[in-house]
Write a structure and sequence with these properties.
Number of strands: 16
Radius of gyration: 22 Å
CATH class of the largest domain: Alpha Beta
Enzyme class: hydrolase
Largest sheet: 7 strands, mixed
Protein name: NAD(+) diphosphatase
Keywords: Hydrolase, Magnesium, Metal-binding, NAD
Distance between the termini: 7 Å
Pfam families: NUDIX, NUDIX-like, Zn_ribbon_NUD
Number of helices: 5
Cofactor: Mg(2+); Zn(2+)
Shape: globular
Bound molecules: zinc ion
Structural class: alpha+beta
CATH superfamily of the largest domain: Nucleoside Triphosphate Pyrophosphohydrolase
Order of helices and strands: EEEEHEEEHHEEEEEEHEEEH
Helix content: 10-25%
Length: about 280
């Protein structure tokens, strides 16, 4: 499967150690809540400002994202009460997906993710001391107990299960009306990724699967997932939704697919890839 991961921030290259102070030529991405500051217009762009225009307190909290060419890029969290100049607005990352190129989208996603990490790690979880940036890698350190705190990354699996000409789809209890998706869930401690796929399918739908094969991955910054996509074949069992997370589960063929997740997600890419390969008579 040739999947274009839209949140893969490939335009950014990390150069450590990062500077002690915000470089004057840095490019800044502003984040407020879950939103990124954008210059409105017929073709919106992420708003970038330069450090000299920034209050000292915001300069100190800037989070290094990486270099784009020779320009260091940082994310800056802006307080909610800060007035916004004419022509600028905050957009959620999902909204931006339809408005800006993928390269920009990946930077916006990373900026929101790293700001979220910063908010959650300002104090050491073990001793309560304010943390400091590690500078030599993407981490913070506790100056008191020397604990290193890395960004949380939550691996999650998603699987397209095939049976004859159909695929297994599930409807989560919180999904929009009529919307179906693929079996998915987080990997648990003490578990391989493959075991997580078998477990999630069994828990959510009651069936067992075989011929599990890895297809692709995708960073998913909502807030810190890494999606790992698989394909598998039905082995045995009756489809029985768990009734807790999943209210309905069923087999769908290509001509009778339900309402699908938006094209932004790897879920949709898996389904589209399968539907395309079925119509071409190929194995996905
Ligand atoms: Zn500590």
């Amino acid at each position: 499967m040739d999947h274009k991961a839209r949140f893969a921030a490939r335009s950014l290259h990390k150069h450590y150690p990062e500077p002690e102070r915000l470089p004057v030529d840095a490019s800044l991405v502003f984040v407020r809540g879950e939103g990124v500051c954008v210059r409105r217009g017929s073709t919106p762009t992420i708003y970038n400002a330069q450090p000299p225009d920034l209050p000292e307190c915001l300069q100190k909290s800037a989070q290094y994202l990486g270099h784009r060419g020779s320009t260091p890029c940082y994310a800056v969290e802006v307080p909610g009460d800060q007035p916004l100049p004419e022509g600028l607005a905050y957009f959620g990352v999902r909204e931006l997906a339809a408005l800006i190129p993928d390269e920009e989208l990946a930077v916006a996603g990373l900026a929101v993710q790293i700001i979220d990490y910063d908010r959650n790690t300002r104090f050491c979880g073990r001793c309560g001391t304010p943390t400091k940036p590690a500078r030599i890698e993407r981490a913070k350190v506790c100056p008191s107990c020397h604990r290193a705190i890395y960004p949380r990354l939550s691996p999650a699996i998603i699987v397209l299960v095939r049976k004859n000409d159909s695929i297994l789809m599930v409807r989560g209890v919180r999904a929009p009306p009529g919307r179906y998706s693929l079996v998915a869930g987080f990997v648990e401690p003490g578990e391989t990724i493959e075991d997580a796929v078998h477990r999630e399918v069994r828990e959510e739908t009651g069936i067992s699967i075989k011929n599990l094969r890895y297809l692709a991955s995708e960073p998913w910054p909502f807030p810190d997932s890494l999606m790992l996509a698989f394909v598998a074949d039905y082995e045995s069992g009756e489809v029985t939704p768990d009734g807790v997370e999943i209210e309905s589960a069923a087999w769908f063929d290509r001509d009778h697919l339900p309402d699908l997740p938006p094209r932004l997600s790897i879920t949709r890419a898996l389904i589209d890839d399968w539907a395309g390969s079925v119509s071409r008579g190929q194995e996905p």
